[in-house]
From TrEMBL:
A GO biological-process term: peptidoglycan metabolic process
Name of the molecule in the record: Soluble lytic murein transglycosylase
Gene: slt_1
InterPro entries (UniProt xref): Lysozyme-like_dom_sf, Transglyc_AS, Transglycosylase_SLT_dom_1
Domain Transglycosylase SLT per the UniProt entry, residue ranges: 106-205
Length: 231
């Protein structure tokens, strides 16, 4: 079972640590419980940016202190308007991207795949920060950062075309949701690490620091977007 500690300081900045040591794979129930606690702990900071990182020892650190260069944005402040915008980088907290031009594409992809719009937006925000020309060091491309083999598998065509990219990415998420019986956390983990990695982990979130933080980040965005739509 994971340990969870909250440390109070005189300033508003607080750091929450979860013992997610890679040497001992964390049971999913403990991980998901920690996610819920994180959401509750920061609910009073609705207007704050939340930053996070995973250390070499597997400890996840969350903070709303933007001065720490080792952390990156996990949750931006409330999005303006119906759809809002995401952070372009943790280093430039004031720069935002207009996501409204992708709203029609995301809505279409959601209808076609039956994947919630909020989940698509959360994945896009984390994967590319809504940059349709984004390219990762590993060669993933476009809004949903599709690898060439995934793009081909789901008939993306031009990976830099926003519509083609999001439609294919949504179909991939649909496949992952079906594979893991509708479990969103496992589908998100598989989007990052691959479905085989999740299966090898016994249908649990793999004990990779990057994947743990990825799931935490995407789910934080997803819960916030769901809350905004329901409010």
């Amino acid at each position: 079972m994971s340990s969870f500690q909250a440390h109070s300081h005189n300033s508003i900045a607080e750091k929450l640590k979860m013992n997610l040591c890679e040497s001992s794979p964390l049971p999913r129930i403990a991980f998901l419980t920690a996610l819920i606690v994180v959401g509750l702990a920061f609910s009073c900071l609705a207007n704050a940016q939340i930053y996070g990182a995973v250390g070499t020892n597997g400890v996840v650190v969350l903070s709303n202190d933007p001065s720490d260069p080792t952390l990156h944005v996990i949750v931006a402040g409330p999005e303006p308007g119906a759809h809002g915008s995401e952070e372009s980088s943790a280093a430039n907290a004031t720069a935002v991207v207009d996501t409204s031009k992708f709203s029609g594409i995301i809505a279409e992809a959601s209808r076609n795949s039956q994947v919630p719009e909020e989940l698509l937006r959360a994945v896009i925000a984390v994967e590319s920060k809504f940059n349709p020309k984004a390219v990762s060091k590993k060669g993933a491309r476009g809004l949903m950062q599709l690898m060439p083999q995934t793009a081909k598998r789901f008939s993306a065509g031009d990976m830099f075309d926003p519509r083609a990219n999001v439609l294919a990415g949504a179909q991939y998420l649909r496949f992952l949701l079906d594979t893991f019986k509708g479990d969103i956390e496992l589908a998100v983990a598989a989007y990052n690490a691959g479905e085989n990695a999740v299966m090898r982990a016994g249908n649990r979130i793999p004990a990779f620091s990057e994947t743990k933080l990825y799931v935490l980040t995407v789910m934080s965005h997803y819960r916030r977007l769901r809350g905004e739509r329901q409010s």
